[in-house]
Every structure is written in structure tokens, then in C-alpha cells.
Amino acid sequence: MLKRFIPILALAGLCWVVVLFDQVLWHGQLASHGIVPRHLSGLPGILWSPFLHGSFQHLAANTLPLLILGGVICARGRSEFSLVTLCGILLSGGLTWLIGRNGSHIGASGLIFCYFGYLASLACFDRKIGTLLLSLVCIVTYGGMLRGLAPTSAPVSWEGHLAGLGAGVAIAWLHEKLKRTPVEEPIPPGPPAKGGAAQP
User: Fold this and answer.
1) What does the pLDDT read at residue 180?
2) Is 116 exposed, middle or buried (0-12, 13-18, 19+ CB in 10 A)?
3) Which residues face 123 on adjacent strands?
4) Which residues fall within 8 angstroms of residue 168, CB to CB, at 6 or more apart?
5) CATH code that applies to domain 2-179
6) Mean pLDDT of successive 10-residue segments in the chain (200 residues)?
7) SS3 readout for 34-62
């Protein structure tokens, strides 16, 4: 049973390892390698930003929702978790690069909002009782996160939160669309036709 949650545990563990090395060895210098909007040099930060945090307190605040929301998706399936995580990092990071304020955007909160947006919107695209209950529980439990979408001048990337939420909804729509698309199997060739040429 625990094997099902190895991907999200590994992801959270990697975040802690990166922050540990950053704070102890590099004195927080990795924070400058996040997403720097509309700068080509900031594009690699799309991949690195979810693993970079400004402090242990920053990462500690993100760890529990990351584990819970990511764990729910892991419970649904490893392939689904891989799809949501990879697409979420790329899509939310890309949107943050486009709309974010100047600065280095770091932290796993964009990915957390992606997980929340994915789970909360699933019921809109997969109209089943189980999916509806899952979305409702997610909204009731973590709906307060939506306050993080309000624009603010504080050093909090509300743009990353908004990008993550939008990415999660888009991935939920795409995932259910792909599930409903029938796969066309090739028709095997039939036996050769019998009979000869017509006699004159």
C-alpha cells in the first residue's frame, strides 16, 4: 500500500534535500534560480522553482498540503500523478513566466495549487458520485487556499498560485478528454477472396 505513495514522498523529500543543501552550504543562493518572468535566463527556473524555497519555514508550510493533495492523486494512480505533476510544473511555470512580476518566483505552492485545481475540478469533467465527493472534500478542506489568489504587493507569488490553479483545471479537462477518446484498433486483414475468373 505504501508503494503507491512513493512518488509524492520522493518529491517532498527532494524538496527538503535541496533546501538543506541550499541553506547549509550555499546560504540561500539557489533562490535566485527560480522563475524570472519574461527573461530567457529565467526559463530554466520553470523546472527548478518547485524545489527551491527561501527558508525551512517556507518549505514546512508547503509540505503538508503537498503531501496530502499529491497523495490523493497518487492513490488514484501513479501514471495520473506523473502526468499531473510533470504537466503542472511545465504549464504553471510557463504561465508564471508570462504573467509574473519581476523577481525570482520559487516554491512548491504553484504545484500545490495545481493539485488543488485538478482535484477540485475533476467533478466538472468526470460526472461520477465518487469523483464529485472527492472534489467536494478537496474544496471544503483546502478551499481557504483560494485567498492566495488575491493580488498583493507582499513577496508572495500570487501569480504562481493563479497559474497553478489554472494549470490544474486544464490538466483535469485534458485527462478526462483523453480517457473518453476511443482508441481505434487496426482491422486485421481478412482471408483472400475465393473464386476464379469468370468463364467466357
Assistant:
1) 77
2) buried
3) none
4) 84, 88, 92, 113, 114, 115, 116, 117, 118, 119, 120, 121
5) 1.20.1540.10
6) 92 97 93 95 96 96 97 95 97 97 96 98 92 95 94 88 98 89 60 49
7) CECCCCHHHCCHHHHHHHCCCCHHHHHHH
> Residue 188's pLDDT is what?
61
Residue 178 is predicted with a pLDDT of: 85
Counted residue by residue, the chain has a size of: 200
CA–CA distance, 155 with 75 (Å, rounded to integer) = 34
Q: Which three cell numbers stand for residue 46?
A: 520553470
- pLDDT, residue 196, reads 46
Which residues share a beta bridge with 121?
none
Backbone phi, psi, residue 35, to 5°: -80, 115
Centre a 10 Å sphere on the Cβ of residue 171 and count the other Cβ atoms it contains.
24
Rounded to a whole number of angstroms, the distance between the first and last alpha carbons of the chain is 75
Distance CA(94)–CA(96), nearest Å, equals 5
State the Cα–Cα distance between residues 18 and 81, nearest whole angstrom. 21
Please tell me the predicted confidence (pLDDT) of residue 112: 98
- Quote the pTM value: 0.89
